[in-house]
Each structure stands twice: as C-alpha cells, then as structure tokens.
Specification:
Elements lengths: L2 E11 L4 H10 L3 E12 L9 E3 L1 H14 L3 E6 L7 H10 L1 E9 L4 E2 L2 E2 L7 H9 L4 E2 L3 H8 L10 H12 L5 E7 L5 E7 L4 E7 L8 H14 L4 H17 L15 H8 L10
Parallel strand pairs: 1-2, 1-4, 4-5, 5-8, 8-9
Antiparallel strand pairs: 2-3, 6-7, 9-10, 10-11
Helix pairs in contact: 1-7, 2-3, 3-4, 4-5, 5-6, 7-8
The protein binds 3-hydroxy-5-(hydroxymethyl)-2-methylisonicotinaldehyde (PXL).
Length: 281
Amino acid sequence: MKRLLTIQDISCVGQCSATVALPLVSACGVECAVLPSAVLSNHTGGFSSWTFADLTPELTNVEKKWNELGITFDAFYTGYVCESQIEPILSIMNSCAAPGAIRVVDPAMADGGKLYAGFGDDFPSKMAKLCNGADYILPNLTEAAFLVGDEPKLSGYTHDDIEFLVTKLHGLGAKNVILTGVSFKDDELGSAISDGKTIEYDFNPRIDRMSHGTGDVYASVFAGSLLRGRSAFESAALAADVVCEAIRNTKEDHWYGVSFEYAIPLVVKTLFADNAGSKDK
Ligand code: PXL
C-alpha cells in the first residue's frame, strides 16, 4: 500500500484540512500519515473567532526523527499552511521522499476573490515557492490569480483567459496544473487539467451553494486516487463527483463544512470496483 504524508492544520471542528484528508485518503486505499502544521479550535471561514497553536518548530523535530528512523513517503500532500512553514515543508519533501515520490500542493489560502483571514498580501508569493517543483498544484481561480500576481475575477473567464492563466501557473514551476472553479456556462462548473502540453476539462452541473471545505475534499480524493494509479484527469473527475455528492448530502443549515462522510461509499466503490482492494495498481 502506498503511503502519503499530508501536512496541513487540524481544525478541531469544521470538516476541513486534516480531518477531511485522513478519512478520504484512507478511503482511497492509501495509508495517510498526518503532520499537523497548526491546531485551531475551528477553521477561520465563517466562525467569529478561533484559537491557533502554531506547530512550526515541531515540523523540523519530526523531520529529524523520521530521517533518523529512515521513514519515507510515496507522496506529499500539502494544504493550508502558514509562511514560516514553507521552508520546513520543502525540507521534509526532500529528505523524506521515497524514490519517485510525488508532491501534490493545494495552495489553500483564498476563495471568492479574497485571501483567508490572517493571510497578508505577500503570502501568495510565499505559497508560490511551495508550487515550484510540485508535481500537481490544485488552485481555485482566486488562488491561481493571486499566485501569478493577477487581480482575481469571480467570473467572465474565456477559454483563452483560462489557458493563459494555466500557462502562468506552470511558469511557477509546477508540472501539472489542476485549476478548479472553471466555468464557461452558467449551469456548469469544473476543472482544467493541464500537463503543460494539453488541457482537458471536466465539468459537472453547477450546484448553486457556497460550501466550506470542498477544496480539501477535492484535493484529498485527487491525491488518493492518483496514488491508486488513476490518471490526473480520472482523479480530478472522481474528486469533483465526490464533492458534488458531498454537497448534495449536506443539510441546508449545516454551514461550516460538507457532509463528505456520505460520499465515502462513492470513493470506495470507484477505487475498489475492480476488486483490487488488496493490491496496489
Ligand atoms: O479549507 C481550507 C481551510 C483549512 N484550514 C483552515 C481554514 C480553511 C479555510 O478557511 O480556515 C484553518
């Protein structure tokens, strides 16, 4: 079984970051190790306040121990992290990599045209460093714009705009770009999947509802599915289907996250459909 390390915060309540990655990566049939970068009482998206314990010094402590024990990973998946953690994380991705290890970077820092609470205007340039050398980056449209120094637009992107944006994202040093939140028609929403040579698009019917944590659900399933041998396009399509299933199963008054738990059967059914549960593909 492949082993993935996710590095992101634990928001104790809020169905995001590590509390989403752990169950979903596991459901993919991939061992999920967790290195919490911070512990928050709850996420910062919609709650009026939160506690924040920064675990930056622990990243280096843990790295030293893993180096001593010879512990390595087949993949790294990073999400919400803060500025002081970028260099320690790059170091871990170098020193703890198994041969051929892949890096999946979700530059979780913004949505809806705005940076998340607590991130300064210079943070995107720091996050861009994590994208440099990543095998896959998964920005939403707002994150993508900030990463390349553009003003974010909430709508009105043409095919040419998206392709230009994707090219600029590759320019950060990322091999594959999965740009989410792409839409050319009012009734659909999807992703652009680019390996630097070709761009493919995956669309689902738009569900008109703002939901927290969907980027984390998407990135977790994407990373898990990739490690089970699916292509980037197949993994992006499964990730989007899981997000839609999660949103559809989330009650109207459940505002702080999505009930992704109801979508776990879809992950398992898809990735174990060939009855290859006991084998890595
Ligand atoms: O879902 C992204 C995320 C992760 N972690 C924390 C957050 C958010 C989004 O607001 O606040 C702490």
